[in-house]
């Protein structure tokens, strides 16, 4: 099975490394392209894989094509490869936000086999949580193949396409939101006199320990909030302050804004 990556930036590079590290794929099974042949060669040499001099040639050689370009570049790429995809059995994986299956099929034809996958940046350490939505023309075996591929890179969830945008917000985008939370705590500690590096190291340990505890003991958020908040103590003062300042409504707004943008992009 040959896998072709159109666009080999942050995400595709992490996927390629993860697939090779997990031995799901050998380097000989991977071909990539970037925006120029020169860049493609340099990246392919660095990863020990092959490159194609253009996207059409890459599609001709691949069984699975992973589209890893930014959404703004996707229309050009889809137009470029459309004739190679039409009437083929090739599987097209799109990791782009804002391109639903209908929109991708409007370029590649209604019969094209499209799977939308939304990984997140944690794929760089094979800890992605990836959402998968398939067009309705996939066989069970084809679905299994794509699922297994992304299971090498973390956890997968198959989703109805209507839920994909919500998944994107809380999984694809959320590493950025989590980093903002960590930055906020870190700089609040700096304001109170701790050096930045020390404050960030402490915050990261506290956050990652909390995640492990919640998963290990299957605690809901409110179970944990109640356990930490001693009656008349310090934590409840902070919890009340966060509630008063609209911490939860801010997150609702952020998720809604993310979903709205994704839906707008799919309509463009
Ligand atoms: N960065 C993230 O956390 C996530 C990104 N995504 C999606 O992944 C996709 C890629 O994002 P990144 O890897 O962050 O972008 P990136 O900018 O790092 O990589 C894009 C790559 O596309 C290449 N490229 C541009 N035009 C091309 C063309 N015509 N033919 C072939 N290659 C071309 C560029 O050379 C570059 O290597 C986007 O669609 C994004 O929505 C999805 C989930 C998470
Ligand atoms: O910001 C974006 O559009 C992409 C999709 C999810 C994470 N990054």
TrEMBL record:
<comment type="pathway">
    <text>Amino-acid biosynthesis; L-proline biosynthesis; L-proline from L-glutamate 5-semialdehyde: step 1/1.</text>
</comment>
<feature type="domain" description="Pyrroline-5-carboxylate reductase catalytic N-terminal">
    <location>
        <begin position="2"/>
        <end position="98"/>
    </location>
</feature>
<dbReference type="Pfam" id="PF14748">
    <property type="entry name" value="P5CR_dimer"/>
</dbReference>
<dbReference type="GO" id="GO:0004735">
    <property type="term" value="F:pyrroline-5-carboxylate reductase activity"/>
</dbReference>
<keyword id="KW-0641">Proline biosynthesis</keyword>
<dbReference type="InterPro" id="IPR029036">
    <property type="entry name" value="P5CR_dimer"/>
</dbReference>
<feature type="binding site">
    <location>
        <position position="55"/>
    </location>
    <ligand>
        <name>NADPH</name>
    </ligand>
</feature>
<feature type="domain" description="Pyrroline-5-carboxylate reductase dimerisation">
    <location>
        <begin position="161"/>
        <end position="265"/>
    </location>
</feature>
<dbReference type="GO" id="GO:0005737">
    <property type="term" value="C:cytoplasm"/>
</dbReference>
<comment type="function">
    <text>Catalyzes the reduction of 1-pyrroline-5-carboxylate (PCA) to L-proline.</text>
</comment>
<comment type="similarity">
    <text>Belongs to the pyrroline-5-carboxylate reductase family.</text>
</comment>
<dbReference type="Pfam" id="PF03807">
    <property type="entry name" value="F420_oxidored"/>
</dbReference>
<keyword id="KW-0521">NADP</keyword>
<dbReference type="InterPro" id="IPR008927">
    <property type="entry name" value="6-PGluconate_DH-like_C_sf"/>
</dbReference>
<keyword id="KW-0560">Oxidoreductase</keyword>
<dbReference type="GO" id="GO:0055129">
    <property type="term" value="P:L-proline biosynthetic process"/>
</dbReference>
<keyword id="KW-0028">Amino-acid biosynthesis</keyword>
<dbReference type="InterPro" id="IPR028939">
    <property type="entry name" value="P5C_Rdtase_cat_N"/>
</dbReference>
<dbReference type="InterPro" id="IPR000304">
    <property type="entry name" value="Pyrroline-COOH_reductase"/>
</dbReference>
<keyword id="KW-0963">Cytoplasm</keyword>
<protein>
    <recommendedName>
        <fullName>Pyrroline-5-carboxylate reductase</fullName>
        <ecNumber>1.5.1.2</ecNumber>
    </recommendedName>
</protein>
<dbReference type="InterPro" id="IPR036291">
    <property type="entry name" value="NAD(P)-bd_dom_sf"/>
</dbReference>
<feature type="binding site">
    <location>
        <begin position="6"/>
        <end position="11"/>
    </location>
    <ligand>
        <name>NADP(+)</name>
    </ligand>
</feature>
């Amino acid at each position: 099975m040959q896998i072709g990556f159109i666009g080999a930036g942050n995400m595709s590079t992490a996927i390629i490394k993860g697939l090779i590290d997990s031995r799901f794929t050998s380097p000989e099974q991977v071909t990539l392209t970037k925006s120029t042949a020169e860049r493609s060669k340099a990246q392919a040499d660095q990863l020990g894989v092959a490159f194609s001099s253009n996207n059409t040639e890459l599609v001709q050689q691949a069984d699975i094509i992973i589209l890893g370009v930014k959404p703004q570049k996707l229309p050009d790429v889809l137009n470029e490869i459309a004739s190679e995809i039409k009437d083929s059995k090739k599987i097209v994986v799109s990791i782009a936000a804002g391109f639903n299956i209908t929109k991708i099929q409007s370029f590649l034809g209604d019969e094209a086999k499209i799977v939308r996958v939304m990984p997140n940046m944690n794929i760089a350490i094979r800890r992605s949580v990836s959402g998968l939505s398939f067009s309705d023309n996939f066989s069970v075996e084809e679905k299994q193949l794509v699922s297994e591929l992304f299971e090498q890179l973390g956890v997968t969830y198959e989703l109805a396409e209507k839920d994909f945008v919500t998944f994107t917000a809380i999984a694809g985008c959320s590493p950025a939101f989590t980093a903002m939370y960590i930055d906020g705590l870190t700089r609040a500690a700096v304001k109170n006199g701790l050096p930045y590096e020390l404050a960030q190291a402490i915050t990261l340990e506290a956050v990652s320990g909390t995640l492990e505890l919640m998963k290990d003991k299957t605690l809901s958020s409110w179970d944990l909030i109640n356990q930490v908040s001693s009656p008349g103590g310090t934590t409840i003062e902070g919890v009340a302050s966060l509630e008063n300042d609209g911490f939860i409504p801010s997150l609702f707004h952020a998720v809604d804004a993310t979903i709205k943008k994704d839906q707008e992009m799919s309509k463009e």
